[in-house]
Specification:
By secondary structure, the protein is mainly alpha-helical. It has a domain at 31-96. Helices cover 67% and strands 0% of the residues. The chain has five helices and no strands. The chain has helices at 4-15, 32-47, 55-58, 62-79, 82-96. α2 (32-47) packs antiparallel against α4.
């Protein structure tokens, strides 16, 4: 069984491998439904309480987290889902109050 420290060192090694900071062009097609689902998965994963996040997610630098959020905001815009996400967020906020 891997210890947490060992797992973090392996993850850090992979992230610092040569070429990991190089830009990659990705042409893909994804359904709007999956864009929406991925948005919620990323949003939930990046806003969970710090104590409940998996160890590897805790170790991700803030700049990488912000870059992923920006990337996904662009995906939402391209899929035409930005307004829908905003309205769903507003509904969720109203439900909390």
């Amino acid at each position: 069984m891997m210890t947490e420290d060992y797992a973090l060192r392996v993850f850090d090694t992979i992230m610092s491998s040569p070429g990991m900071n190089e830009m990659v062009r990705m042409d893909m097609k994804i359904s709007r439904k999956n864009v929406l689902l991925l948005h919620y998965m990323i949003e939930r994963g990046s806003t969970e309480n710090e104590g409940s996040l998996p160890l590897l997610l805790k170790s991700i630098p803030k700049e990488n987290t912000n870059e992923i959020r920006q990337l996904f905001e662009e995906c939402l815009q391209r899929a035409g889902l930005t307004e829908l996400i905003q309205k769903l967020s507003d509904l969720a906020e109203q439900k909390k109050h």
